Each structure stands twice: as C-alpha cells, then as structure tokens.
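Incident log entry.

Two folding requests arrived from the same account within the same minute. Monitoring flagged them as a possible duplicate submission, but the sequences differ. Recording both here for audit purposes.

Request one:
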Amino acid sequence: MSTSPSDDRRTPDDLTEYERDQFPRGIPESQPRYPEGGADTARSALTLRLVLATFGLVICAVFAVLAFLAEVPLVFPIVLAVLAVIALVDLMVVARRKLRGEPG
C-alpha cells in the first residue's frame, strides 16, 4: 500500500514576520501540489473540437457532392456522406456542451 509523500511546506507558525505580512495565505510555490496521482484533471478543448467538426462537415459534404457529380463509384460519396453526418453529430454534441457552460 503506498503512502502519500510528506508535506514539506512551511506552516504559518514557521514564517517570519515579513513572510506573514507579505504572504497571508502562505508562501506561493512554484508548482501546485496535487493529490497522489500527480496531475490536475484534464480539460477538454471544446472550441478546437467545434472548429474541427465544422471543417470536417464542410469538407466531407463538398467532396461527397463532387464525388457524386463526377460519377465515381458510389461507395466514395456514401463514405463521405457518412463522415459528414458523424461530423454533424459531433458538432451538435460539442455545441450543446459549450452552451451548458463547460470550459474549453
């Protein structure tokens, strides 16, 4: 069973009078301390996903129409149309999450 590392931060009682006046909440550290595990929670890049989903929707839709008009085998426009629908669904999911106020 692992134990958490010892907390070597100075307590308010260990601070000098200058440090107590200048740093009422303690001396700031170069890096915040997180619980055992090390990293802060991940944040989603919703704006980037929104841009990429919009780009994928436009590109796939345009290429699906062009492939259909160019009379290439029917599988290519169908695959591009399916990808456009997937991009549209992702766009709606991301827009809904952003409207709810999620960060990113």
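Request two (distinct sequence, not a duplicate):
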Amino acid sequence: MKATLIHKLCCPFDKQDLKLTIITQDVNQNIIEGLLSCPACSRYYPIVYGIPIMNPDEYREKRLEAPIMARWAKQLGTTNTPE
C-alpha cells in the first residue's frame, strides 16, 4: 500500500479520517505492515502484506488478528491489543 492512499481512506464505521502507523516498508517505501486507526471511534484496521483489512465489525475475526497485533506491540508502544 502506498502511504498516499491514506488520504483516500476513511473509517467505514463513522467516515472519519484515519491515522496511519507504519510497521514495515519495502525498498520503494510501500507499506507492507501497518495499522490504520480511527481516533473518533477507537477502531483499528491492520495492514497485512500491503492490504488494509477494513472489514465491518461483524465480519472481523479478532482471534486471527491477535497474533499480528501481539507481534506489533513493541512498535506500537502497547502491551495489549486495541479493542
């Protein structure tokens, strides 16, 4: 995912702007892993293999996201996963 794409994305729940946290990038500065978060509603959307996962709440599988979030905890400055 290119970092400039953040200006075209919004939170699917409340349509607010998203905050981008980059975890890893490739040599062309494409985002490989990262996190999109909504300051208004506190939802988060992981970026995995360059693809933002922005499913509605009812289709998300938090148990599958938990290992990724745990691996990113140090880079995100957290000790637990966002809710």
